[in-house]
């Protein structure tokens, strides 16, 4: 047992923190303003591309991607504190080319993509030139049980023909988004975990109809967006299939472990920022003749928040350690645990921060209201908490 | 002790429920569509005016307003189950001319307005021709302690001159909104509860600048809106003052009791609707080979929701009974209790409903996401829960 | 809706409160001392019999028992506030001959007993001359599902022969306890809710072996006790059977409604006493230079306690109202709800009170530690909370 | 960051687990039986001395005591998983001479004792020949603020004279207990953290009157006990003073860090045992036609318990790491956090286990009821949770 990061990680933390202070926090407002300019929010604000260039120049680029020649060569454990720092600002991850779902999609391409697939899609993603979408969840079926997925991927000659309706295909509303990984049913017999495949679908293919963006708890998440997409007789070359027919679950298992832990790392940063804001507020706000910090339950809230954050962080780090050491499959229990803990913890911390801010807390004048929506959505993203609790219980009952 | 409503109330409940089924629920979507038409959301959708006409015709109009010749002659206790029913739909209260802040403002005018003030503002409000705003909260001060309010109302000759900045002046973004009741400081000496006054300010007065609407947890609440308003040397006739100089607190005390209980009544309806939606969902959605209703914690959630709703409803009814019987001032403890309980209860119930819906729960395809934002905001509206808990504790410690 | 008790009830409340102040609270210590005298705690302290005589003289006797010529002629709703007052002291209910399980057993005899059974057992119970036990729960089976009950009651000639093992047969360790109502299986075919019977078994019958008392969370509950009883070829006359063979469930349904609500009424009194003690403590205890009442979360705890108590009380009263009006069977949902709410509410309130008292709170120098154990046990007594939540959910899902 | 114990620790874990399986668990019942024999529970059961001899022989002795020539040479971090294992049984710690308050008292003597004091008291304690008491808490004052301590320690010639009343002097009812460390006021001026001293008082000194044992939530904790002690003109040689006059706080600071973390380590073991028992139960108990494990909220409880335990364990380990590395003073925040988290976590886990067991859960047929009392008491032991939350908040607000 050893509770300190290596010097390499500490240096990256410092560098990243500096970048956050100098480039990210001061530009959060600019980003929002540029987004709102001109009435169309579905465009990339100029400031984002400028920050990406700066980050790339400083080597703060593609820090995710463990065990790969493509990334920065960090393990999940080493990446964890860095993702946490990025999590402090909603615009940060993209700046460092570390934002979902691109990270997960790049991991899929690194691990399971053919040489040709990598050249065509991985390289521009790694360069931050395009964005991507993971098109999985469907409105008509309970998609947390992915065997329900009903979109079809049917071979016809040298092509696959895709038909179905997806939603919460996050990122597809972004004009920079060029490629989707689509999950669907290709085989209609045999073991139910071997009937699905994943396939690369360029968004400009005929029959791909992005119908609308779906607001999440009031937020459009522009320019990213959560798209509803209709796949209407979409034809792509057979070579676009990932890994092989019926191997869709294999891919999503490989994808989801790191994906979930990245979210969790970021929630810790989000919670730290919320706690910082709260402390700043209550030290400076007077009601009923006293500073808020000297009233009622505020100090209890601060203590509770600190206790919850510390515990969540340690379990996230341990999970990262285990993914590195025994692989995502053997770290399933830990991955499910931090998925649940991360989102619930940040929900509670942000909720208290909002309450400390009074009316300002629900406005968009602080980042808290948006964090609140994000945190709530995370309790459903990548499967509702309850599905993950069931995983934990099942493994526990098996003595694993 | 007697736990049934009178026949008069039961008849109104039935009539109202029928109206909800026939006119309100089927038009929720229409309302939203009309609102989104043409790019400008700051307008009254046609359907609203149509529904108002129908409601008025059926006598479902101004059901609030106890002890007054103006309203329907119901007590608070009689109004409670009706407000609950209205609370089931976010568009319903306005249809019946029972929506905040107009109800509170009308009560102020009924109780404290001069004959002239009533003629000019109360009558059109009662007719549903105009809307109004209660301009109280300020961004710069902790306004839950209203002695902090710093906007000034200074007498100059036959006029009062108003200067200050307000926000969360809900309703002021609505084009039909014509009049504001503004709270400010008129006297700068003496007891701190006798320094503030309330004054009627027509929104078209020179110097009234509605700067922006403030989104609440992602929602703009158009066409209503939560406005930030700058009062810049605004001059109104001295006769616009309500009740008298230094009597602002007297007015807000009178206003807040019923205001809070109306919110609470509606939260119960909101919670009932969320529970209905949840039950409908879990009875029909399959994951992992079983209906949701037969899985995990869902049934516990249903039981918890029912238990919380029932208790909140009973305390709300008792509070209404006490306001009727001993007056708002002597029902302070109950009013503070239900203010806290109502918003927390509905927050929990809606949260569970969202979780049962999965991704759909955070979209705008169900009313749940908006309810979630409303419920959260209510934990701050009319003073944060913690301020009300302090009231309860203080009275309890005094043995009251 | 009407939220006040009748004058008759108010007078009884006053009288009862006076008795509590003058006779009960001052003698709690005496009772404990007499119980501890002489090394044997399994005896009736003298003071109890004295207090019973006084209570009887004042007409504060058998206040429970609605709709019966035997009791005081009160409805459940009228009895509720009186039971609440009794709940403030652990020795009070017995003083007024209103303690479990005698009350439930008397109700069974009133409703289902033959004339002979009433004469023999009901009359001495009504007079407070003997005590009784309800022998239901078994160690080997999950008894919250009473169809599991496996003790046998087999007819042989003019007798029934009883064999089985029971535990938590509360009261059987008391030397004054003379009679048990035993639930067992008499019919081994047919509908599983028609296989059980209930039968009267005098404790001095050959083969009734009270093996031990079972401490509940550290307390022996002497002289009452929670007995483990072996029924070893116990023979009683066939006329001891209650109501008829296979009608055991009919009896327990009739018994449990009022039983549960009595417990719930008393938990409210228990919670009120805990809150009183807590308030008294925090107003007088100084740490870190300030009264406890001015520190941290204490005031929040007071407010939370008040809010929880008020809500639980109202739902208990409504449930009593419904039992009176539509009968226990049609008030199942309410009965299950208050069963859960009452015990959880008092658990929370007492927990906070203990925490406010520091070390003294876990000692026996205050009534809190014992209350804590009682409250916890009540979450299991008459079926675990979860079984009752399932009842609520099931009825809710059926739209009832 | 590294999440595995060293091989040395793993070997000790294995050895200890074996000892638990072979010697401890099977003898829990024997211990209880021997304690109950003969009517006097205030004696050491024979089995305890036998187990101590075996443990000592196997080198499983005095495993606590970091940085000292006296103990096993383990760091706090190394000791943590071992203390966790001991925590699984209420009789285990004493077997390995690792039980409170002896461990803390030995640490005090190791660090602050004179050579003579060590020879006289430390050696027999290390050998497990005698036991000791830490006499700190007083009934009359809020002792979580130790500056309130009012017992006096006054120099008279070559002696100190002690007067005062203490309670919760745990262990003093044990006949093997020979020595007390008493905290009292020796200086009546100057800084309030320099007015108290600690002094060694043999229990057989004239004027030391052990008045009674105080049950904790129903349990007498025999033969250990929680004593109320009157110090009535107790005279001890001046050389019995520890460290020096006015240095009492210095000592208790040094004592409390490890003391608290030991408790927390043990609570993790206690929670693991409770979870084991619960899982065993629900896999084998049928109600309503289904195994408990397939019903309702049980699986959620298992998942929640696992998540809470894992997080608490990691923070405990990190705290141990910090005490080793930067010292207890600089690990104050962590120490306070795990003090709160440990007791609350185990309270929740044990509560769920009890609920799964039904009536058996509150009896003494499983270890759960006693664990429940212990867990609850720990929320007050070494200062109420709220005092520790205040420490966390204060440090957090200072940015530490």
Describe the structure.
The structure is a homotetramer of 400-residue chains. Chain A is α+β, with helices and mostly antiparallel strands and 400 residues long. Chain A folds into three domains: 7-113, Butyryl-Coa Dehydrogenase, subunit A, domain 1, CATH 1.10.540.10; 131-242, Butyryl-CoA Dehydrogenase, subunit A, domain 2, CATH 2.40.110; 249-397, Butyryl-CoA Dehydrogenase, subunit A, domain 3. The first copy, chain A, is 50% helix and 16% strand. Chain A is built from 13 helices and ten strands. The first copy, chain A, has helices spanning 7-24, 28-36, 46-57, 76-86, 92-95, 102-112, 115-126, 248-282, 298-330, 332-357, 359-362, 368-378, 385-397, and strands at 131-135, 152-156, 159-170, 177-185, 196-202, 208-213, 226-237, 241-242, 286-287, 290-291. In chain A, strands 1-4-5-8 form a four-stranded mixed beta sheet. The first copy, chain A, has a four-stranded antiparallel beta sheet with strand order 2-3-7-6, with no helix packed on it. A two-stranded antiparallel sheet of chain A has the order 9-10. In chain A, strand 9 and strand 10 (290-291) form a beta hairpin. Chain A is globular and about 75 Å long. The model of chain A has no long low-confidence stretch (mean pLDDT 95). Chain B binds chain C through residues 1-5, 77, 275, 279, 283, 293, 299-300, 302-304, 306-307, 310-312, 314-315, 317-318, 321-322, 333-334, 337, 340-341, 386, 388-390, 392-394, 396-397, and chain C through 1-5, 77, 275, 279, 283, 293, 299-300, 302-304, 306-307, 310-312, 314-315, 317-318, 321-322, 333-334, 337, 340-341, 386, 388-390, 392-394, 396-397.
């Amino acid at each position: 047992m050893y509770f300190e990061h290596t010097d390499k990680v500490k240096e990256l933390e410092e560098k990243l923190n500096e970048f956050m202070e100098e480039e990210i926090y001061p530009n959060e407002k600019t980003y929002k303003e540029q987004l709102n300019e001109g009435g169309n929010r579905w465009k990339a604000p100029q400031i984002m591309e400028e920050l990406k260039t700066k980050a790339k120049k400083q080597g703060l680029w593609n820090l995710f991607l463990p065990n790969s020649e493509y990334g920065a060569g960090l393990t999940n454990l080493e990446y964890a504190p860095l993702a946490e720092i990025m999590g402090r600002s909603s615009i940060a991850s993209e700046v460092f080319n570390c934002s979902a779902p691109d990270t997960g999609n790049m991991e899929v391409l690194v691990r399971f993509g053919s040489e040709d697939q990598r050249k065509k899609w991985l390289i521009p993603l790694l360069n931050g030139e395009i964005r991507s979408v993971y098109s999985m969840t469907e409105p008509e079926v309970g998609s947390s049980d992915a065997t329900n997925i009903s979109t079809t991927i049917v071979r016809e000659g040298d092509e696959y023909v895709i038909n179905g309706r997806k939603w919460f295909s996050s990122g597809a509303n972004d004009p920079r988004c060029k490629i989707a990984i689509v999950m669907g049913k290709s085989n209609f017999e045999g073991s139910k975990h071997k009937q699905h495949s994943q396939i690369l679908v360029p968004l400009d293919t005929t029959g791909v109809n992005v119908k609308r963006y779906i607001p999440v708890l009031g937020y459009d998440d522009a320019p990213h967006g959560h798209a509803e997409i209709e796949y209407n007789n979409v034809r792509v070359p057979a070579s676009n299939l990932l890994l092989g027919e019926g191997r869709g679950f294999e891919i999503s298992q490989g994808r989801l472990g790191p994906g979930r832990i990245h979210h969790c790392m970021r929630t810790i940063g989000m919670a730290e920022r919320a706690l910082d804001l709260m402390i700043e507020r209550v030290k400076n706000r007077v009601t009923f003749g006293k500073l808020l910090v000297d009233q009622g339950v505020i100090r209890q809230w601060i203590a509770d928040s600190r206790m919850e954050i510390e515990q969540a962080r340690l379990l996230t780090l341990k999970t990262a350690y285990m993914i590195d050491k025994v692989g995502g499959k053997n770290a399933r229990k830990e991955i499910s645990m931090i998925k649940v803990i991360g989102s619930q913890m940040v929900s509670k911390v942000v909720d208290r921060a909002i309450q400390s801010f009074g009316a300002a807390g629900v406005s968009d004048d602080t980042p808290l209201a948006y964090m609140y929506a994000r945190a709530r959505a995370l309790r459903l993203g990548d499967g509702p908490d309850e599905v993950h609790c069931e995983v934990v219980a099942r493994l526990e009952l098996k003595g694993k």
